[in-house]
Specification:
single chain; alpha/beta; Aspartate Aminotransferase, domain 2; 2 domains; 7-stranded mixed β-sheet; 3-stranded antiparallel β-sheet; PyrdxlP-dep_Trfase; transferase
Length: 383
């Protein structure tokens, strides 16, 4: 049995399968700057994901930074406080003003109704997040964007492989940005990508991620160095061979959690109910007042058993010093996000998680529930 159970982990193919890729890189003497593996991974990802164009990046944060540059976003951007800090940090790095909209407490995603009421003459874009890989209300968001002439950039860091109505969720908005960090469903150690819909936009993005070079001696934009190297691209190609198995394993683990936690009073979770093809990137639960322990106490109880869950996302972005001065960061403006942030706990889920180790997680949660004198009542799903 493993000593520690972590919240997530990459699926690691056998080392010997990576050696031929390394040998080819060594023979080619091309380590970066759009080498053969880089080009191949862009093509294979576009085909696998069902999108037109993939622009690879060295990490997802640089991809977000460049997406904002590529669309020439200015002024105010409406976004969510319930995300990883990179979402809003990229706005500050671009000299933009984040405007926080509250979330839907049932999907954890930005509320379209809250978006519309925050639009001002300075608003130029919306940056929603497909939180935990759960799709945003993309049709409603696009309708708002069309009415007010706004750009839409999706932070799709969690949404690799997610499909809705038979098509990739990444095809919505002007751009979607993926993360290939080591903790993600699909990873290249570090890495990321921008998904775009036409060749002209891809060309501009490719200029921007390579210092703005449009040839050996011509620079057309104040770009940045955000290129993915050949080692990461090679690892991505190898990972892609295993991704379907990894997704299937995650789904099975998710379902075992649902079965194992059924009937535990005060523990609720998101139920996709077959509304979309999910990647099961996370297993978020809400620790409600009916559970004997508060969320933080359960977090510590799990950690005491060598089980590392994550309060993800807590604290809210809006509570950090560089954001709390904003009018829309006020707690009374974000009631749902603040409530969810105090209850959320993401349990360990990764393809190599054994049934025995998963049962340890379930047993700890159930044992504390049994310490309550009164009998448990059926769980209330977040759906």
């Amino acid at each position: 049995m493993a000593d520690n159970i972590f919240v997530t982990s990459p699926l690691l193919p056998p080392l010997e399968e990576f050696i031929p890729y390394m040998e080819q890189i060594w023979q080619n003497r091309i380590l970066t700057n759009g080498g053969a593996f880089h080009q191949q991974l862009e093509d294979e990802l576009a085909n696998y994901l069902g999108v037109k164009h993939v622009c690879l990046f060295s990490n997802g944060t640089l991809a977000l930074l460049t997406a904002l540059q590529a669309l020439r976003v200015t002024g105010e951007v409406i976004t969510t406080p319930y995300s990883f800090v990179a979402t809003s940090h990229t706005l500050l790095w671009n000299g933009l003003t984040p405007v926080f909209a509250d979330i839907d407490p049932q999907t954890f995603n930005i509320s379209p109704e809250r978006i519309e009421e925050l639009i001002t003459p300075q608003t130029t874009a919306i940056m929603p997040v497909h939180c935990y890989g759960i799709p945003c209300e993309v049709e409603k968001i696009q309708q708002i964007a069309d009415i007010y002439g706004l750009k839409v950039i999706y932070d799709a860091a969690h949404a690799f492989g997610v499909r809705q109505n038979g098509t990739s969720i990444l095809n919505h908005g002007d751009l979607s940005v993926l993360s290939f960090h080591a903790t993600k469903v699909f990873n290249t150690f570090e890495g990321g990508a921008i998904i775009c819909h036409d060749a002209r936009t891809k060309q501009r993005i490719d200029y921007l991620k390579n210092f703005g070079f449009a040839g050996e001696t011509r620079v057309v934009a104040p770009g940045i160095n955000a290129k993915m190297n050949e080692m990461e691209a090679a690892f991505g190609l190898l990972q892609l061979k295993y991704i379907d198995g990894a997704l299937a394993a995650r789904k099975a683990i998710y379902q075992r959690y649902c079965e194992g936690l059924q009937g535990v009073e005060g523990i609720s979770w998101f139920d996709a109910a077959d509304r979309f093809e999910w990647n099961h990137a996370y297993y978020p639960v809400l620790v409600e007042g009916e559970y004997p322990l508060a969320r933080d106490a359960l977090y510590e109880a799990l950690k005491a058993e060598g089980i590392y869950s994550r309060r993800y996302f807590y604290p809210l972005i809006s509570s950090f010093a560089m954001y709390r001065h904003l009018p829309t960061a006020a707690e009374e403006h974000l009631p749902a996000a603040n409530v969810i942030a105090e209850k959320i706990l993401c349990l360990p889920i990764y393809p190599d998680l054994t049934e025995a180790d998963q049962q340890r997680v379930i047993d700890v949660i159930r044992q504390h529930a049994l310490n309550r004198a009164k009998p448990a009542s059926p769980v209330q799903h977040v759906a």
